[in-house]
Amino acid sequence: MAQQSLFPEFEAFANQTQLADRLKGGNLPVLVHRVLGHGATAADMPGKELPSSEFERRQTLARLNISKLAAATKLEFPANVLAEAESVREAFDRQAAAYAAPGGTDRFAAEVLSKIDISPEKKGRSNDRFFAGGLLLVVDAAGLAVSWSLTQYYPMVSKIPLEVAYVVEAFHRAQQAYQDLVLDVESFMSRLDLAVRISSQRAKRDEVLLKDVASAYVVACQAKDFWASPQKKAFVDVPPAAFVANFSKHRATVGTTYELKPAVLHESHGPNAIAFFLPSDQEGTSTRPWKSIRRLHVGESLLDNKG
């Protein structure tokens, strides 16, 4: 059985007039192809590309400037196509407004969690945040997109359309991406030590900001090829989540070597904030701001090294 057309009037007109082929340059060809279901989703996640979701196709048609499209193609769009496009726009605007209302995405998030096949105690809602398998489901109601993140700050996958099947698939890919980031304790500690040394040399002091160490960790993770010949083509991108994932997993070992100092309120928020946030619970629904890190001297006692 042939799949039912999502926009029968628009698609029939596009096929009859070879609409996409008439467009040269600019963003209009991309938008028309997306409406027609061609190409891949805009979701930013590893693995095989997925086709554009129905949500993305509806969103694109709802935002498509038909007048601009008509002028670019020198075509007159018939009344039935215009009526269909207007109907899609009105329905999408209602859906977007519902999502933007307080608690508007809660039902969507709950449905996503119900489709994720893991132990019930590993998914749910805590601190007014939805979680599954150590990742947070972060819904951007204004941007109409979803991410799976380590805490609310460090996305593993992002720009996922508000479509349950896509968000569930993205969860599994985010979990795999997390596993790929996690190192054994010896490998992580060697990279952390290097990141702290880099930060200390730049700051010319032993105690350095944890956020600076997190930035230096990207450099510390580079392979031998980069260190042999530091060039952009040899530089491997390391997501911010890599530092958080490994630091959290190996926190007990870190605490035997380094002292961490927490950030106070004015250091954690505002334009001059210097804090770096780490998860303070297993689900990642709660975080604690940290200011600095310093290597302990031999025999030195730990101060505030828990959290």
Describe the structure using short key phrases.
alpha+beta, 3 domains, five-stranded antiparallel sheet, four-stranded antiparallel sheet, 9 strands
Set out the fold topology.
Blueprint: H1 8-17, H2 19-22, H3 28-35, H4 54-63, H5 66-73, H6 79-100, H7 106-115, E1 123-126, E2 129-132, E3 135-140, E4 145-150, E5 154-161, H8 164-181, H9 185-203, E6 208-209, H10 210-220, H11 224-228, H12 240-249, H13 251-257, E7 258-262, H14 265-268, E8 276-279, E9 287-295
Antiparallel strand pairs: 1-2, 2-3, 3-4, 4-5, 6-9, 7-9, 8-9
Give the domain tally.
3
Q: List segments where confidence is low: pLDDT < 50 over at least 5 consecutive residues.
A: none
* H/I helix tally: 14
Number of strands: 9
Describe the structure.
- By secondary structure, this protein is an alpha+beta fold.
- The protein has three domains: about 10-100, no CATH class; about 105-180, no CATH class; about 185-295, no CATH class.
- Helix content is about 50%, strand content about 15%.
- The chain is built from 14 helices and nine strands.
- The strands form two sheets. The chain has a five-stranded antiparallel β-sheet with strand order 1-2-3-4-5.
- Helix 3 packs across helix 4 (about 55-65).
- The longest helix has 22 residues, at about 80-100.
- The N and C termini lie far apart (about 60 Å).
- About 30% of the residues are buried.
- The mean pLDDT is about 90.
